[in-house]
Amino acid sequence: MSNLEYGYLGPPGTFSEQAISNYCARYGGSTTACGSIRDIVEAVTADRVDLGLLPLENSLEGSVNLSLDLLYQHPELKLYREIVLPIEQYLLARPGVKKEEIKEIYSHPQAIAQSGDYLANEFKDAKIIYTDSTAAAAKKALADRKRAAVGSIRLAEIYELEIMAENLQGDLPNATRFVLAAKKDKDLGPNNHLGEAAASDFKTSIICAPKVNEAGVLHRILGKFAEENIDLTRIESRPSRQRLGEYIFYIDLKGCSSDQHLSSALEEVKKISSYFRLLGSYPKTVIE
């Protein structure tokens, strides 16, 4: 079993904690709660934790842009594993509170967005207030009968809140994808379990920017992968922050960078890019 230390977006009761706790139960390790996604990255780069669990995207609400931006801003980071957690949102309040008493609903913006249809239909007049985490929202709900929180069932257990409604996201499949990031030169030891998976289960992530910003440039980049029959699983653009209209691309691909066909495609993309970085090749863990 591993003795690595993992930083996650706390406090206890968040979906991040649920994901990393399940992972550690399987592979070992200990956890440290961080106050924000920036704090996670800072803890990793300052060697206060070995790896950081970063939320990357949600199946309903899309990418977590701050995580993408921080990966770009910190070239010393490398991705080592993907963790996918199914998400179910609950409406939580103090025991005995009735629906008509609720005047304010608190939660993280992602949780509110995932529960948007339910909240719009059932709490049209309630004030929606964003918090840094779902756990922070639970604390708000615990303090006042007029408040409710959106979050996980674990929050109900930790803060002794009552479940007023469940499955707020409806019938849509809701899952969040996390990645474990560490410094490239970090010695993670021989028993870290990070690379355990069949070769077919690996994913490779890169960041790149074209040498020239002109029509067809993205097509040329993607064409290099098509020539080698490499499947793309995701592509996302973010502003370069250098000048208006310039973008960098985050691309996820099936396979490991050591594979001959993928390696060849990556070399070709590198030739036509002004910026190229291999974030890592890593396996996936699905939390049931």
Notes on the protein architecture:
- With 288 residues, the protein is an alpha/beta fold.
- The protein has 3 domains: 2-86 and 174-183, Periplasmic binding protein-like II (D-Maltodextrin-Binding Protein, domain 2); 90-165, D-Maltodextrin-Binding Protein, domain 2; 201-281, Alpha-Beta Plaits (2-Layer Sandwich), CATH 3.30.70.
- Helices cover 29% and strands 35% of the residues.
- It contains 9 helices and 16 strands.
- Strands 1, 2, 3, 4, 5, 11 and 16 form a 7-stranded mixed beta sheet that branches.
- Helix 1 (15-27) links the parallel strand 1 (2-9) and strand 2 (28-34).
- Helix 8 (217-227) packs antiparallel against helix 9 (260-271).
- The protein starts with a strand and ends with a strand.
- The model has no long low-confidence stretch (mean pLDDT 90).
- InterPro entries: ACT-like_dom_sf, ACT_dom, Chor_mutase/pphenate_deHydtase, Preph_deHydtase, Preph_deHydtase_CS.
- Pathway: Amino-acid biosynthesis; L-phenylalanine biosynthesis; phenylpyruvate from prephenate: step 1/1.
- Residues 206-283 form the ACT domain.
